[in-house]
Each structure stands twice: as structure tokens, then as C-alpha cells.
Amino acid sequence: MLDLYAGTGALALEALSRGAEHATFVEEGREALAALRYNIEQLDVASKATVLPMSVERVGRTFSRTLEADRFTLVFADPPYKLIAGGEFVQSFEPIVCSGGLASDATVVVEHASADPPPTVSDLELLESRRYGDTTLSLYLYRSRI
Question: Based on the structure, what is the number of domains in the chain?
Fold first, then answer.
């Protein structure tokens, strides 16, 4: 699992508790990183966790060199909503999608404001969007060109 804009890591930590083999967390905020590392330690899952203390944009530029793990089958992205509305999220995320780091038929979930349309990302097919008040979860399927 790849957790972008991980914050405290709640989603990927939940995935680990439900049987995920490994989670990679991408977070650049100092306070969030401290909370994330604390949570990983408290839950005793350090052997199943990789923390990348950097921006998603930076991961996108260096993805293939930075990560040597198997391809991700599940990706969750909860960017600041302004990044969705302004298009910066897609610019940061597309290099990750195109890098070869996602498994064929990977599931990608993007959280965004309900007022914004689901982002359009290369090689991702929008399956559905589920609205929860002011928040929408858009679910995508990755289709590898290879």
C-alpha cells in the first residue's frame, strides 16, 4: 500500500492491521511525521513500514530510484483539497502512476472536496465516486499499458 499525504498514517496503519504486507507512507509535514513515526512504533509495525519524509511531488520525480519494493496494489491519496482544485495534485501524482510502481489493476482512492470534480489522471479509469457530505472518495482502477 502507498499512502500519499499520509498525515498520521491512520489509513495505511488500518490496512496493515487488516493484513497488508507493507505500507509506504509519504508525508512532509514535521508534526505529522512525528505523529506517524510514533504511531508506527506504538503499533509495532516498523518492519512493515517505510516512511518517505518528502513531498509527493518529489516522490513522483524520484519514484523509481527511491522505492525498490514490489509494485503497489492499493494507493490512497488525501491531498489538501486546494491541490485538487488547482491541478497540482495531478501534476505530482501522474509521474508516480507512469513510473511503473503500480501493479496492474491497482486500486487508487483519491479524497477530494465534493465541490470539485474527480481528478483526471493518465492510465487511471474512474470507477465511481462516493460522496460523504463535503468530502468525496473517487475510486480508480490502474490499467498498465505494458
Answer: 1
